[in-house]
Amino acid sequence: MIDAIAWKFQTGSQWIHLPERYGNWRGVYNRLRMWAVDGTWERVFTTLVAQADADDDLNWAVSVDSTIVRAHQHAAGARKKGLQQANRQTTPSAGPGAD
């Protein structure tokens, strides 16, 4: 069962393409969901981390990605229908020497 679940997530394949040697894909999927709902995966992870920590075999590595992704101009709130006229009224000035 664990190998079937690992195969699915390692390959990124759809459940229906699970090799027959792992059994019916529906059964594997249902077991994965049941274990997720009842907290089995969380308990497994917690136990493995505790065991690795006790064996002094736990080594945390943190990776931070500083990539900047810019949105397309339309996604950033730019106008979608070309340029629009400003609604300001302009009045001609009298000029520098007018009184």
From TrEMBL:
Residue stretches making up the Insertion element IS402-like domain: 1-45
Superkingdom, natural source: Bacteria
Signal sequence residues: none
Spans annotated as Disordered: 75-99
Biased composition, class Polar residues, residue ranges: 84-93
PANTHER family: BLL5188 PROTEIN, TIS1421-TRANSPOSASE PROTEIN A
Protein name in the entry: Transposase
Origin species: Actinacidiphila cocklensis
